[in-house]
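Milestone 3.1: sequence recovery, worked example.
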């Protein structure tokens, strides 16, 4: 088992800074010159050990935004299919001219 170059107190205080102050993990990682993946691991381990719940995705406001996102993606998909079909026709047209 490898030993960490960071003390347990340092890890815990860093995680508490992130959790209590709603700081971004990537911002804290840059400030402390630590790999963000390391901080993600520290936070997830800390939350598991201390039984801290993570944010739920199934809130009612999230469902509305998911519905809006779904509608937006369907519109975008429709436009992309139309563009693809136009490009297919153009490709066939120009391929016919070169033969």
């Amino acid at each position: 088992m490898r030993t960490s170059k960071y003390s347990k107190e340092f890890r815990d205080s860093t995680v508490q800074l992130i959790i209590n102050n709603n700081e971004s993990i990537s911002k804290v990682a840059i400030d402390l010159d630590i790999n963000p993946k390391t901080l993600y691991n520290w936070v997830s381990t800390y939350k598991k050990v201390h039984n801290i719940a993570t944010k739920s995705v199934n809130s009612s406001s999230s469902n509305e935004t998911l519905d809006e996102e779904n509608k937006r993606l369907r519109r975008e998909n429709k436009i992309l299919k139309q563009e693809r079909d136009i490009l297919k026709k153009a490709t066939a047209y120009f391929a016919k001219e070169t033969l």
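The chain has two domains: 8-49, 56-99. The chain has a mean pLDDT of 85.
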